[in-house]
Amino acid sequence: MSLSFGRFTDSDKSKSKVSIWYNSEKLYREKKFMDSYEAFLNYVRDDNTDNLDFRKTGNEIHFKFFQGSNIIKGNISDKGIVAESDIAEFEKPPVAVMRRLLELNYSLLYCRYAFNNNKICLKFNSRLNDGAPRKIYYALKELASNADRQDDLLTNEFKILKPLETGAKEVMPEHEKQIKYKYFRKWIDEAVKITDALNQESFTGAISYVLLNTLYKIDYLITPQGIIMTELERLNWQYFANDNKPYSEKNRLLKNSFLELLNKPETEILKDFYKTRSTFGIPLPSHHDKLVSVINRNIENVKYYIDNNYKNIALNIYEYIASHSLFSYGLPQADLKLLDLIMRLLNQDYLAELGADELLYHTSKNSLKSKLIKKEIKSIIDNSRSEYPDLGFNTEALNFDSLLSFLRSYYNQIKLLNFNG
Q1: Are residues 139 and 210 in the same domain?
Q2: Cα(275)–Cα(168) distance, integer angstroms
Q3: How much is the CA Rg of the chain, to the nearest whole Å?
């Protein structure tokens, strides 16, 4: 079985897509509005995920696209652009909910919450001569990302609200949900045990690496939706907030939050395990230099833990470099694929249970499958050369003597990648 992980990203558009974007802007400047928006929708549509559909009838365009658990529908005509997504429904307008929606409106730049009969919806509209492609892109992204979050958050907080069956959620097979739930608990439990065994004051850095890596690993390899996804994002924000709290306190709060997740009923966790399609990625597009910076900031911290026989912490740091980057940045596809290889390599037991076609590690021999790894790297680089002709990866410089040696040599080669093109 071929497995894919991680959340949707639209950060690394192909050259052909970029040319469509520039054409959309050109047509808009020429006041050919409908042609501009048609090009815009073709730019936003992902060719691999069937995330967006539109049809043009006369001088009108109707469109629909997916974002997680929500479907956003819209219309473009001489009257302007309208897009909206239903969030939840109610029998009568609850005062507490209306107050919350007013508060949420203050945080929005382009959209607004509104009532549509007995439904709460998130809505955006604009006149044609005030709807440049760049504005429409950020407006629809704001609408989509907030609709995807707030449907779960509002119905969870206000029991008077009823969730809507939009049809956007794709059922995950029960056996897959059970495997993911098993490792959701396993990884948290392992992180708690590792960090509990360390001195909380003198090993604050190690504890942070282990806990944060667990957070990012769950997000990438399990990819929960709904409340769990929002909680992982909150924990990340809480840890990196500039609030002057000592890192020992941040670690304690993070660990306690993990323990609360472990105490949640299984049904509460499993309801956030489903598959989705999306149109807008959450992390902002980032250049390869951002990944190089993450590697440089963290890779030298590994040596102390190797020298002092803390192999599990050293592996957590190496994995953290990949998992943190995948969580935080919209990197070029080649970077994403190379980091995905690390995540799969370090979680072979999980992949085996999910039914992976071929594993990268001889578990019985405790050795890396060098030929298979080199083959995967070559495929990743070859598939990106049309966009980045100078891209190359020296697989002969990789050290396959041990897992730790390999990871260091692998990151050193990633740092040398040339994304000029």
Answers
A1: no
A2: 9
A3: 23
